[in-house]
Amino acid sequence: MHRRTGVVSLALLGFLAAGAPAQAEDPQFTLVIRDHRFTPAELQIPAGVKVKLLVKNEDPTPEEFESTKLHREKVVPPGQEILVIVGPLDAGTYEFFGDFHKESAQGKLIAK
Amino acid sequence: MIAVAIIVFREVLEAALIVSIVLAASKGTRGRGVWVTGGIALGVLGACVVAGFAAEIAQAVAGMGQELFNATILFAAVGMLGWHNVWMGRHGKEMAMEATALGREVAAGDRPLYALASVVGIAVLREGSETVLFLYGLAAAGSGGTANLVGGGTIGVLGGVVVGAGLYLGLLRIPSRHLFAVTSWMILLLAAGLASQGAFFLNQADVLPALGNQVWDTSWLLDEDGVPGRVLHVLIGYVARPEGIQLVFWAATVIILLSLMRWFSTSPKRAVVRAAVIVSLVSAGLVLARAAHADFTIHPPIVEYQEFEVEHKGSYTFDPNPANRHNETGTLEIGYGFLPWWGSEIEFAWSRTASDPPRRLDEINWENTFQLADQGEYWLDPGIFAEIGKSTRVGNTHHVEIGPTLQKQWGNTLHTVNLFFEHPFGPNNGEKSVNFNYAWQSLWTWKREFQPGFEIFGDVGPVDRAPGIRDQQLRVGPVVFGKVSLGQALGELKYGLGYLFGLTHATEKGALKWQLEWEKVF
User: Fold this and answer.
1) 0.80 exceeded by the pTM?
2) Is the ipTM of this complex over 0.85?
3) Which of B9, B202, B213 to mutate to test the interface with A (most CBs of A within 10 A)?
4) Which residues contact B219 (CB under 8 A, 6 or more apart)?
């Protein structure tokens, strides 16, 4: 993992993406979508560090995890679990919602 | 039904606006209807495929497949739009001069409609895939019944098309002689907006830093979710709470496309282009001024006599180890070429690390460049670089750095090497060592505005007891530099951008670096 070939790579994006997933020491939390709601609706996460959110969709229909404050927008296919990386965040409250079911799919991250 | 209509409307609106701009930009071109319709059709088909493979895409590339896919197609659209504008810049004058309608049509027939059709297809695919997923989800859940879905969906589509048609008809009222310029600008801003969206997804994929989660918040003024906000989002790339990286990409797209358009243009509108370049660079500078310090600079053995310059450089690191990642450095430099062989600069350098978040002024440096011979007088252009730096932080040492700089122009390539010896001193310096660092740069001087190449930076450490290569610092990576002239009154703008890969154990995995400079002869 540390070895680098030193060849200037034109496939910069793929190379970086493959090499830069969040590492084992990043804190990880799970959000579950059930009946078009997020569980838990309020989630406390550490501020100032990168956080991995695993969003699991237990509904039979797709949902889109979205948050303007977190700058995240990602589709969660039914029965699937997706990875959303947030942070490092300043302390505060960050609302998120499910764009496909905005009336019920609401939640917030509280960074402390 | 209303809820369905609203969501479908929002997605269709974005695609419809792009289609309208493309149609207006290609007005008068034979066969454009076929191309645009084809683009829409392929986009719809693609949207269904992407929606069908949503699960596989989401899990691809360590869970970042969606983001990378979106970013890729967005940047592909940016490329297509850029290509169209460059092409129009090259042929625009010819077309405007054609007196007869027949002549106009014939000249316009060669326009790269495939580029515009691709943009339409990409826009429809992106918005369409989300719409298809949403509608499929509703249908599968059986919410509200088919009538609800079909009715709401139809209303949404019609609504989006109506707004798009409104824009198109509005654009058509512009007289033909101005339409070319207006649509070129709209396409330029559309491309910048798409690039900014691409940057958003690359940040979400953890490939690019945010450079500030929220440079400003104008959602109280104009919310992106409302109709006018969405329209502005598509037309100029307006974002209510932009990340710094989005602004960087927006400005960089404007600068690069304008430079390419102007360079290829047969009838450049110099003043307008220059003004736009200044505006976008200032906005880029607003973002970059918040960011970090460059240890990675090549010093040429050339003095720009009587030239005053203001410069900002920055860097940002990436690494799996939290101690080495998200470290930022930044500098602000002011300099002048006092004599043909001596130039001098004052540099303020600050940095910030992940473990020590507030930005701190690290040191104030006085840099001097000595040019020892005329350029080209000898086989190598020789120079000397000398710097003295005073640390502004408690517990840190001051330093002196000196060494030769060499440059060689070879055909249309430019090579520069720095070999520097650094000696720390001061109240807190226990070691009496001299450290050696080296740097190499090779550039292809293709065009003034765009010179790609690579750079190597190495830091050996103390010369008398240098560690093995594994514990030295070594970075290599691609870079691009360029300068844009603003005319004799306004001077020149220079930029540089690069990414350095760390090759040794002692080096961070990667670092993004950038620089912006304004200079003028006084």
Assistant:
1) no
2) no
3) B213
4) A68, B240, B241
